[in-house]
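To assess whether the prediction recovers the assembly geometry, we first specified each molecular entity separately, as shown.
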Amino acid sequence: MSTASEGTRHGLSAVLHRHPRLRLSLLIGPPMLWLGVAYLGALGALFITSLWGQDSFTGTVVREWNLDNFRILWESEVYRKIAFRTVGIAALVTAIDVLIAFPVALYMAKIASPRMRQVLVIAVLTPLWASYLVKAYAWRIMLSEDGVVSDLGGLLGIDTPGYGLVAVVITLAYLWLPFMILPIYAGLERLPDSILEASMDLGAKTGHTVRRVVVPQVFPAVIAGSIFTFSLSLGDYITVRIVGGANQMLGNVVYDNVGAANNLPFAAAVATIPVVIMLVYLGAARRTGALENV
Amino acid sequence: MTPRHLRWPRIVAACAALTLTAACGTTSSDDKASDGGFKAPDLPMLQKLGDPEGEVNILAWPGYAEDGSTDPKVDWVTDFEKESGCQVNVKYFGTSDEAVSLMKTGEYDVVSASGDASLRLIAGGDVEPVNTDLVPNYADVFDFLKDRDWNSVDGQMYGIPHGWGANLLMYRTDEVTPAPTSWGAVFDTDSPYKGKVTAYDSPIYIADAALYLMKHEPDLGIENPYSLDQDQLDAAVDLLKDQRGLISEYWSDYLKEVQAFTTGDSVIGTTWQVIASVAKGEDVPVEAILPEEGSTGWSDTWMVSSKSDHKTCAYLWLDHIISPEANDAVAEYFGEAPANAKACDIATEGFCDEYKAADADFAAQIWYWTTPIEQCLDGRTDVKCTDYGDWTQAWTEIKG
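The predicted structure of the complete assembly is given in tokenized form:
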């Protein structure tokens, strides 16, 4: 018995040894299957659902192929407005995060002492441990009529923006900031100090060095960070429900159509919009060569 | 190297295609639902109670199934659990739409459905007829709540009446002066409370605007706020689009509304009595009134899921929740008229008079939430009315 099973085991490893292709497919087959079925398959199912309709009274899905959902999306102005608003918010959040994250990351990577650097990395990561909802509700309380923002801002003559788009941008920029700082920090850390010294030796001033040497070098890292902040903002619907007042973003339209109207096909059609926007964005990012650094 | 590089995308594409075919495979077998018209699927009802199954999953309006965790004094669930041996799991919902989609999951045994959900649940086959003989307390329910068009089909009850009430206008007494008497306070575009008005976040809120127009713009000829032809719907939508400029936020989460009134981010808007009570309990200076135009409202029905695995416990809950004690406790806590006539015998003195619980004429004046359908509910046959799908679309446009 033992020789027989040993023989099989030996035979199996011999087969594997002789067929490198088989070895490779056994190794990466399961993860690829997961990617193919669970990931792309879900996207495919989403797209197929968007081609169905719904019985408006009982809410049951009517499986008849048509493009009505996309026609409604295209024709009614309100969805175009919401889509543009959502992209605008995502772009603004990304821009604000870049502006805040770049100096912070530069300080962390190039100026701070090793000890300080550790403290700062932990400080950047800590907010990620707290629940998203806790942070969003904290902003709701801070931005309310008698909240901290209006109390402290009152000293400077600033009133709270109240619940609305401004509050959404502030909250999202706060929530996604670590996702921007970390890639830029990693990119700056890879940048050798000798290049900076060479630039200085050749007579470039600090501002000039940052503009002509540092920024082009970390640009791919900024794009990598922006993919996170942009896509996370694009799909968000909870923050806008908590601090967005009466406004809605694409995520809310999806949510309302799933949760309230129970119109899954239409929700699926709306959900393809951010997918398309992200594909365009990734295509553009690829052209800059940034994806190789993600 | 290149050929192998090319192969992976192809394999991934094949996997994806496989999933798609699997998803499409179900296309043909699905039966088509009738278009907008009403037809109840043929479902059996329970003939006899069995042994309690040990648990019951309840889908309810906030405040309908309190077990003392919100307020130790407010508890009509713990005793039921002890007596029946049915562990109670409660999920609260904020809008009727949410209730309908949650019931489709089949994970809940009973639901407290308002009139804008009940018919959709019946038509969708999500709830089954209820055998009222198995619910002894049903005999004491006010007659004017039995066999109504939102809880029965062709004389067959699909649930047990729970209670009814009106949507109210709530305002901060320290901020809003003089006290409002009309819904005009939330529709007036010159309102001094601009940016601090709140409204209910559901397409059914369009009926509130329609009710206001019914009283103030008789030329539109609105007879029933749930039966609007395209012109009437457009008028209501225009009114709500103007109101959009006044809104601080729409609410569907009742605790979020309490918080908004506490901080003063909202100072006036539509509400339920229970929200006013919770806010008052937290010493927020608010008052809730029934404006002169009358109001939309709800008449709720406990229904049993057709997919329930705990039907005996479900029926035991139905009987318990409309027992005089529990029905009175819910009604007084939530602020609505109880369905059980005997609940009024043990209620706090004057409670049933205040809510006119036994007054069928008063109950008839409230426009209970009901699902708008293509056939006009007010009896018109020369026009097609807008259905709930149109209302949902309109609601998205109103919010913008």
